Structures are given as C-alpha cells and as structure tokens.
Amino acid sequence: MSKTNITATGQALWTKMPKASAELFALTYGALVTEIIRDYENINDVNSQLEKIGHSIGIRCVDEFLSKSELAGFVIPTCKNMRDTAEVVAKGGFKMFLGIPCEVANFNADGKAFSLIIYENPLSIFVEIPSTSEEFRGEDLSSICYSNIYCGIVRGVLESVNIKVICTFVKDVLKGDDVNEIRVEVKEILTDGAGDDYKEE
Amino acid sequence: MSKTNITATGQALWTKMPKASAELFALTYGALVTEIIRDYENINDVNSQLEKIGHSIGIRCVDEFLSKSELAGFVIPTCKNMRDTAEVVAKGGFKMFLGIPCEVANFNADGKAFSLIIYENPLSIFVEIPSTSEEFRGEDLSSICYSNIYCGIVRGVLESVNIKVICTFVKDVLKGDDVNEIRVEVKEILTDGAGDDYKEE
Question: Shortest Cα distance from B2 to chain A (angstroms)?
C-alpha cells in the first residue's frame, strides 16, 4: 500500500467533508468534558466516559469514511497488516475528520502495538489543565485525559473492522509533553471464522 | 449598513476559520445533549442547561468575531439600530461559526423583536426526537429544544455588546416545522451611562 495514496485520499476526503468551525467544535467538546467532570465520582471514570463516547462516535465514523470514499471514487487499499491499517487510520481517518496530520510511529517488534502522533490537537486550543479544581470537589484534575475521546474513536473504528484494541494517551501536550501520542495495542483480531461460535449455540 | 457587505464579510471570515468536520461536531454535540439529559430532572432544565452552555460560548464568539474581522482587515459596520445588529449576527456571526446561511425575518413594529431563520441545522443532521424515552425515565422528550445552544450563543453574543435579549426556539425542523426559527426579544439595551450606577455604590 502506498503511503502517498492514502495521504492524498485523506486530504481529498477532508476537502469534501461538510465543515464546522474548529473553535466552536473545541468549545462544544469543552462543555461536554465539563458536564462529565460534574457527573462522575473520580477522574478515572471521567476518562472512561470520554473514551466510551468516542467509541460510539468511532463506530459511526468508519461507516462515513468507507461510504464517502466509495462515493468519491477512492479505493481504500486493502490492509494486509497492522502497518497498513495504522496508516489508513492516521492518514485517512484523522485527516478526514479532523483535518490534521497524524503520524504512525513506534511499532513494536511483533507489529501488535503502535503509536499515533498528533502534533496539533484541535480539541485543546482553549484548554489549560488546572492542577486542582474546586468544582471537582478539590480532587486533582491533572490525571484527566482531556482528549480521551480520540482513544475511543480509534477503538470504535478498529472494532468495526474486527480489530480489538486498547488505546491510551501516553503523551499529552496539555501535560507538558512535546507531542500527543496515543498508544494502540492490538488485543485480538477477529477472523471470519468468529461466526462459528455463534452457530454452535 | 449594506447587507451585501456583511454577507461578504461573513463568507470571507468563514473561509479563513480553522475547520472541523461538521459530522464530528454534530456527534459531539449529540453526546453533550445526551449527558445533560442524563443529568437533569426534567426537560425544562435540560433546555436551560443547553442555553446556559451556549451563553458562555457566545461570549467567547463575539471576541473571536471582532478580533478575526479586524485581523482580516474587515470593518464591521456600526450598528445604528436592532435591524443592523440582527443582520450582523445572522450574516456575519452565524456564517462565520457555522458556515450556514441565516436570515433575519419578522421584525415587530417597535423593532424590539425579530426572528433568525435557519434552513439547515448542522447540529441535527443525525437526530430524530423520540416521543418518549426509557432512558429519560419514561418522560416525554418531545419538548426538548435540541439545538437550544444557539439561543444561548445569540444571547451571549448580544449581551457582550450590551444588548440583553431572550431567545426562544419557536419553530424546529426536528419537530416537523419547515424551518428553524429563533425568536429574539430585546429586553434592555445598556447604554454607556450604565456605569454611573456602579459609581454610585
């Protein structure tokens, strides 16, 4: 699979997508995070809830991505391995939905874990993480994964193509890192034979 | 003030705005509405909360609008009356932040109430309002003003320029109307002299 191809496809799809203001999007996402912080008992639950919301968005995104590519006459190359899949997610999906570049990096030896590197995070343009917040009952907010919705989106997208993953923010510019890095670990790849179990019941 | 001018300015500002996918924005807003429905006791409170969130976004939007126009070399015409102000909100603000056309209509005789007509609502592209919902403890969801954030945004924007208004969704495509109509009623215009009260304290 050619990297250039998928990069061009992602760029072309992004051009065709209906758009909203990135600032309004960032402010709306901020309002969502604020509501969730108000609702949940601790920061781990806040992070999980953001991931869960991302997951259900991710499931929709993959349909959009495939149908829009087809309509526009683009052929999404068959992914023969996780390296191909990672490139399609980074160069196709992230570009199409966020309009931002995303790089694949740090594949481990067995090819079952990799990182998505995001240099600019449109969600966080207005955000500073306070170390403590009265609104959150004085609890330390510094462990929040503010943009955890991305992790859920990636999990949802990959689940839709039968790849079960766990995604974690390992670097976050909001916490002082130089880039945003999402670690994607493949847990299971469901093969076509998975339906056999179902038949046995 | 020329209508063409402000329409062109709104269009030019929209072109310059950083963008996100309208679909991702709509899905994120949907997640926000869902969280709020889960949190609040009744639908009136849900509507108020959406309006309140819009209000704080509106206050930010007006700064963005003014600073971006200035940076881009556009002169926002002085609004001599509510008709001018309404045109700037509709043709400038709505276009800049949502990329959609918005019309001013139905000014009342004293010029203190008007409607903003929105034909396409990017927030509601994936939405159908159920008449009842188990998730909302069986209560009727049909009185939800799904896009009430707009009302808050308009209130926040106008408050920032010293005009106190109340905004209400009077027509909603989600409820079967042919257009979306937000009624804007001016309650008070704070003049420069308002500071005098402050001094007296």
Answer: 25
Nearest-CA distance B93 → chain A (Å): 11
Distance (Å) of CA B103 to CA A35, A95, B78, B151: 32, 33, 19, 15
**How many domains does one find in chain B?**
1
Q: Which residues of chain B lie closer than 8 angstroms to A29, CB-CB?
A: 28
> What percent of chain A shows pLDDT beyond 70?
87
Average pLDDT score, chain A: 85
Q: Which two tokens stand for residue B185?
A: 């009623």
Q: Of B160, B8, B153, B158, nearest to B73 (Cα)? A: B8
Task: List CB contacts (< 8 A) between B66 and chain A.
Answer: none
Interface residues of chain B, partner chain A, Cβ below 8 Å:
14, 17-29, 31-32, 35-36, 38-39, 53, 56-57, 60-61, 64, 96-99, 122, 126, 149
Give the pLDDT confidence score for residue A64 in this predicted structure.
79
> How many C-beta neighbours within 10 Å does residue B70 have?
11
Q: Could you read off the pLDDT of B103-138 as tens digits, one per residue?
A: 999 999 999 999 999 999 999 988 888 766 555 666
In a domain, A12, yes or no: no
Chain A interface mutation, best of B32, B120, B127, B153, highest count of A Cβ atoms under 10 Å: B32
Asked if the structure places residue A6 within a domain, the reply is no
How many angstroms separate the CA atoms of B124 and B122, rounded?
Answer: 6
pTM score, two decimals? 0.87
Report yes or no on A106 lying in a domain. yes
| pLDDT tens digits, one per residue of A100-132 | 889 999 999 999 999 999 999 999 988 888 766
Greater confidence, A9 or B107? Answer: B107
Classify residue B199: in a domain, yes or no.
Answer: no
Contacts with A32 from chain B: Cβ below 8 Å: 28, 31-32, 35
What three-state secondary structure class fits B75? coil
Structural domain for B159, as ranges: 3-129+136-190
- Greater pLDDT, A158 or B194: A158
Encoded tokens for A136: 């959150």
CATH number of the structural domain spanning residue B175: 3.30.1380.20
